[in-house]
Amino acid sequence: MTEVNQLKAESEKQKKEIDVIYQIMKNGELAFEAVDAIRGMALELRRDAEHLGKGKSIRAAMVQCHTMKGVARTYAMVGLVDEIHNFESHLKAVLYNDAHWDEKVLKRLLVTIDETVKHYDKYMKRVYHQRADYSKTLTALIKEVEPVLETTSIEVGKAVPRIYLCDEIGELQDHEASALKKALIHLLTNSVVHGLEDNKLREVAGKAERGSVFIEGLIVDGKRHILLSDDGHGLNLQALADKDSGIGERDEQIAELIFVSGVSTAAEVTKSAGRGVGMDAVRQFIEDIGGSIVIEFTGERKGDFRPFCFRIVV
Question: Which residues are 223's β-sheet partners?
Answer without folding.
Answer: 220
